[in-house]
From TrEMBL:
Gene name, Swiss-Prot/TrEMBL: murD
UniProt xrefs under SUPFAM superfamilies: MurCD N-terminal domain, MurD-like peptide ligases, catalytic domain, MurD-like peptide ligases, peptide-binding domain
Protein species of origin: Heyndrickxia ginsengihumi
Subcellular location: Cytoplasm
Taxonomic lineage from the root: Bacteria, Bacillati, Bacillota, Bacilli, Bacillales
Cellular component GO terms, alphabetical: cytoplasm
Family statement: Belongs to the MurCDEF family.
Domain Mur ligase C-terminal: 314-427
Principal subcellular localisation of the protein: cytoplasm
The name this protein goes by in its record: UDP-N-acetylmuramoylalanine--D-glutamate ligase
Any one GO BP annotation for this protein: peptidoglycan biosynthetic process
MF annotations from Gene Ontology: ATP binding; UDP-N-acetylmuramoylalanine-D-glutamate ligase activity
Length: 451
């Protein structure tokens, strides 16, 4: 960890806890700052805040009092999930108090090179693929962090010069950077998302493009060349542009060409050897291969991972094959776009398990992707809406059940050898489950019970 004096004796407010807030508060305390932590959860229900209090850090819990801004803070480190419309945050902006997220702290203290990954879809798969390829190449020594679950500012404290920090980054995190500069930046794709937070697609896109705003000509920006508006968005970047495409051959990038993955004209692996399913995952693979080659990974390490990597848990994850039926867990598909991507990954007859929290939208956008769906098993608040969509798509077998656990044996009874049984809910889980992970784990357990 680099020794920096930037925060010594400075009054800093850490707003919002969870893992990132706890790590940021502890780190700033270690760096000599006068830290105050403010979290909405009451102290008696807040073990994280209690732990920080024991470290000698000032803690204010139970609300976000606007009066805090009168204490003369020189910086706010904000939990990414807290919107900029929050009165305390808005008040800080009016007073010109700088606001950052903890990934900025991670960059300032780390000794390692950073590979940063963002985009609307595919971030976690791409981050994990890069990590696995680096790990398979014995000359590289990767660490994984960021929005994928391991707090970047915590990992950064032990990262060494000869290591590589691979960080998954959300638009929320990227809004709070000032000097953050990855050596390799990746934008997987860009679609309309998180408008409740950003307001417009333009603001969302601007936040994503922050990943390259501090890069120089010594750095690399890997970007989806099939989205011309994305290429146009990052035209301001000073980094070396490394495009990738599933549709055209790119001499200075990564391509799917004549069935092969190529990088700058070099053939790496044939598509048929790759076990991760789905055209959408080809984009993630191309971005990952580009990052690996730029970091000097051997082709042998790339091939080893791509011929064995079956996916990240809850993201088009292969679970089991039972009596000729293949089961896939895509519980992370909490919106229509993600469900559509999963459905496109399979050409065989498919039984789709879907449903969940009703956010007020319809599902007719799914209809073009339901061509191979022979039956739908529906659950949760959106079951009636999804049933309407299924009927419009001409699907004859539509069954409603109470939950995911009950959907699995019903789907198995309806299926035949060669079928795919896919959990891809197209909805958030919160009507029945605390998280998409819990929903996915219940699906996995129900599949294994069939054995």
């Amino acid at each position: 960890m680099k020794t920096i004096n930037d925060y010594q004796h400075k009054k800093i407010l850490v707003l919002g806890l969870a893992k990132s807030g706890v790590s940021a508060a502890s780190l700033l305390h270690k760096l000599g700052a006068f830290v105050t932590v403010n979290d909405f959860k009451p102290l008696e229900e807040n073990p994280d805040a209690q732990g920080l209090l024991e470290q000698g850090i000032k803690v204010i819990c139970g609300s976000h009092p606007i009066e805090l801004l009168d204490e003369g803070f020189e910086l706010i480190v904000k939990n990414p999930g807290i919107p900029y419309t929050n009165p305390l945050v808005a008040g800080a902006l009016e007073r010109n108090i700088p606001i950052i997220t903890e990934v900025e702290l991670a960059y300032q203290i780390t000794e390692s090179e950073i590979v940063g990954i963002t985009g609307t879809n595919g971030k976690t798969t791409t981050t994990t693929l890069i990590y696995e390829i680096f790990k398979a190449d014995k000359r590289l020594d990767p660490l994984i962090a960021g929005n994928i679950g391991k707090v970047a500012s915590k990992v950064a404290q032990t990262a060494k010069k000869d290591q590589q920090m691979i960080i998954e980054l959300s638009s929320f995190q990227l809004m709070g950077i000032r000097t953050f500069r990855p050596h390799i930046a990746i934008i997987t794709n860009l679609y309309e998302a998180h408008l409740d937070y950003h307001g417009t697609k333009q603001e969302y896109a601007k936040a994503k493009s922050n990943i390259t705003k501090n890069q120089t000509e010594d750095d690399f920006l890997i970007v989806n060349n099939d989205q011309k508006e994305l290429v146009e968005l990052v035209r301001f970047s000073k980094a070396k542009l490394i495009p990738f495409s599933t549709k055209e051959y790119l001499e200075n990038g990564c391509s799917l060409y004549d069935g092969y993955i190529t990088f700058r004209g070099e053939t790496i692996i044939h598509r048929n050897e790759i076990v991760l399913p789905g055209d959408h995952n080809l984009e993630n693979i191309l971005a990952s291969v580009a990052a690996a080659k730029l970091m000097g990974a051997e082709n042998e390490a790339i091939r080893k991972v791509l011929t064995t990597f079956t996916g990240v848990k809850h993201r088009t994850q292969f679970v089991a094959e039972i009596d000729g039926r293949k089961f896939y867990n895509d519980s992370k598909a909490t919106n229509i776009l993600a469900c559509t991507s999963a459905l496109k990954a399979f050409n065989q007859p498919t039984i789709l398990l879907a449903g969940g929290l009703d956010r007020g939208n319809g599902f007719d956008e799914l209809i073009p992707s339901l061509t191979n769906v022979k039956a739908m098993i529906l659950f949760g608040q959106t079951a009636p809406k999804l049933e309407e969509t299924a009927k419009k798509a001409g699907i004859e077998t539509i069954i409603r059940v109470d939950n995911v656990e009950k959907a699995v044996p019903v789907a198995f009874e309806l299926s035949e050898p060669g079928d795919c049984i896919l959990l891809s809910p197209a909805c958030a889980s919160w009507d029945q489950y605390k998280s998409f992970e819990i929903r996915g784990d219940i699906f996995i357990n129900a599949v294994h019970k069939l054995k």
